[in-house]
Prior knowledge:
The chain is α/β, with parallel strands linked by helices and 271 residues long.
Amino acid sequence: MTTIAILGAGKIGEALLAGLLKAGRRPADVLFTERYPQRVVELTEQYGVRGVENDEAAALADVLVVAVKPQDIEPLLDALAPVVRPGTLVVSLAAGLPTSLYERRLPAGTAVVRVMPNTPMLVGEAMSAISAGSHATAEHLALVEEMLASVGKVVRVPESQQDAVTALSGSGPAYFFFLVEAMIDAGILLGLPRGVSTDLIIQSAVGAALMLRDSGDHPVLLREAVTSPGGTTIAAIRELENHGVRAALLAAIEAAALRSAQLGRAHEPSA
Ligand SMILES: NC(=O)C1=CN([C@@H]2O[C@H](COP(=O)(O)OP(=O)(O)OC[C@H]3O[C@@H](n4cnc5c(N)ncnc54)[C@H](O)[C@@H]3O)[C@@H](O)[C@H]2O)C=CC1
Ligand SMILES: O=C(O)[C@@H]1CCC=N1
């Protein structure tokens, strides 16, 4: 059985850990590393998996999943470079970091797959996009696809599209949460109790999400079906357009993609 070590078990690392176990991987086949001892205790107690040091993970695991913040990558690569074994697959979940960074810093020929997941991984509904580095084979991609399919959907994209993916689906859940938060506040403005407003909006979000996924209809058609002539919805849509919400989303997502590219460039040799 393949042994997987998750290096950095924070929000996304824990989501993957939980998802892999839920999908049937044995706790003995999953390791993790964490820099805070208290976090090691918590995760060991909760999931029955073993917390180890990064060099031990490199010695024991077939797949090393990097789930530290991009800003924390340098010390981790320093720790891994002398101990990564031939044949190890490195899977990076970090925003912005190109496979070339790992290939430059780890032993020659190390296979790297870059992944952009998102937090709905916690509920088995992740959207993950994967790209092969220059030494990753079809088998490596298939293995990563199989791992991630246990916690949601997976698509393959050229690595050149990963900054855009990061801006869309990596950060995407935050935009929906932001929208929901604002809509709940609108209910408060209209005098509804917070609990009622929250229930109304969350169930509407769940229903709309399922229609988007399952109906096969374009979002425009779904919106038009809610928008009666001379009715309430069109009055709201006019305000959304007047306030530039569409343009704001285009600008926001473009800013996220630029930030992803910038995070990658920060680790270039000349930076
Ligand atoms: N949170 C999100 O929605 C998403 C995050 N990502 C990426 O996943 C990565 C992790 O993000 P989060 O989980 O949000 O961050 P986080 O801060 O919750 O988790 C990172 C964890 O790594 C640990 N860590 C740092 N250096 C370490 C080291 N040398 N050895 C062992 N553990 C170490 C930290 O203690 C922390 O618990 C980032 O690179 C981020 O770009 C990707 C997609 C979505
Ligand atoms: O905000 C971030 O940098 C990470 C990457 C994608 C989602 N969260």
